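Re: beginner question about structure tokens

> Can someone show what the tokenized structure looks like for a real chain? I only ever see the sequence side.

Sure, here's an example I had lying around. Input first:
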Amino acid sequence: MDRIVPRIPHRLMDTPRARCRDERRQSLEYVAKAMALIGEGNRAVSRGTLARELGLHPDYLGKLFKACTGRNIREYMNRVRIARAVELILSGDGGDGEIMRIALDVGFASVRSFYRCFRRIMGLPPLEYRYTVRSRRVHENVAAGESDGVGCLEMAQMNENEEG
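And the corresponding structure tokens:
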């Protein structure tokens, strides 16, 4: 059979379509690595830092990231940070001091930028978001019969005091 079917030279196998597939796969690998580094969240990460770690130019990484995810790197980083912040905000009981600590812990350089970003993504400032989510949970639990309503008033008052 080898005599009948001639062997295709290797250089002909390297078609533009094959190169495009390889480049796309490589691009997705770079973006996946960048997302993993952002998701670690244990250090401050910038586009330049990510690009250096991946061996790419920052502008090129930005274009790849946008093409693959539909978001720029900063927007993705902010969404990851806000998601972490939401978990911490809903698990905590403190007021503004706790929010300031959370803002810095999740990687924002200032509390002001954290509040602005949180409001843009979540629709409410952090403490108001916490109060809204918690009061919805209380009402849902009472409506579902999981609670007899005892203690709901106290919990609502505690939430009001946190904001006041």
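Each token stands for a local structural state, so reading them left to right follows the chain. The chain is about 75% helix and 0% strand.
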